[in-house]
Amino acid sequence: MAKSRKTLTILSLIIVVIIVGLIVFVTTQTNHSGKSGASASKKTITIGSKNFTENLILGEMYADALENAGYKVNRKLNLGGTLVAHEALKKGDIDLYPEYTGTGLLDILKEDKRTDADEVYRVVAKQYKDKWNLVWLNPSKANDSQGLAVSKKISDKYNIHTFSDFARESKTINFASTPEFDERQDGVKGLRAAYGGFQFKSSKIYDYGLRYQLLANGKADAVVAFTTDGQLTNKNVVLLEDDKHFFPPYFVCPVIREDVIKDDPNIKKIINEVSAKLDGAKMQALNAEVDLQKEKYQDVAKKFLVDEGLIKK
Hints:
Blueprint: H1 2-33, H2 35-40, E1 44-48, H3 53-68, E2 72-76, H4 82-91, E3 96-100, H5 101-108, H6 117-132, E4 134-136, E5 146-151, H7 152-158, H8 163-168, E6 174-177, H9 188-195, E7 202-205, H10 211-216, E8 222-226, E9 237-239, E10 252-257, H11 258-263, H12 266-275, H13 280-291, H14 297-307
C-alpha cells in the first residue's frame, strides 16, 4: 500500500511538471508571435493634444498608429491651449503631443521671430532638448501658419492674390479681425511695418469661429486665416500669398519626452512615418471633413492612416 501511494505521488509530480512546461511553452510562443505578447512587453504611451480640430486629428493619428503596432495607448486629447499641453509634457502627464515649430519658437521659448523653416526647427529642437529633455521628431510638410483670406469676389474685383496686393487695396476692404490680432506685433501692426497699407475701410473684431461665415454672407471682405483651415477648400475663398514671408513657419511636428524613445526607438519610427504622409493640402482636407462635413475626428484620422497604408482596417 505504501509503495502504491509513493507511485501515485511520483506520477502526480510528473503530471504537474508537464502541465507547467506546457503553460511556459504556450506563453513563450504567444509572446514571440502574437500581438498580445507584443502589447504585454511594451509600455503604455500617453498621447495628448490641444483643443482644436487639427490637433485632435493629429493626436488620434499618433494613437492609432501606435496601437496598430501593438502599443497600449492612453488618450488625453483636448487638453487645452499650448501652455497646458506643454506643461503636461514637461511633467510627464503625457508622453507626446502635436506642436508647431513657430509656436515653440515664439510662445514657449519667447525667441525673436525667424522665417527660415530649417532654422526655426533647429532652434526649437536644441532648446527643448537642453531645457527639458524633450525631443522634436521629424517635421511634417503641413505648415499651419497664420494668413489672410478674402472672398473670391473681392480677389477678382481688385486683383488681390498676395499680401502686397492686399496692402495696396486695403482702404477698400471690410476686415474681420480676431482678438489681439490688431495689437500684436505679428498681427496688423507688424504687417503695416512690413507691407505698408493695412488701413481698412472698416475693421471689427469677431470670434475665430465666425470668420468664414462672415465671408460667405458678405459681412466681411477679408479675414484672419490659418493656412490649413478646412474652410480654405471652398473655391469661393482665396488664401493670399505672404510674399514677403512676414509670418514665421508653423510646421506640424510631434514633441516627445526623450526617455520614451530612449527606452523604445521604434516609437520614433512609427510617429515619423505618420508625419511623412502629411502636407498642407491633406491637412486642409482632413480639417474640412470634421469642420464642414461634420465627421468624427476619430474616424477621419483612422481613415487617413488606412488610405495611406500605415495601418490596417
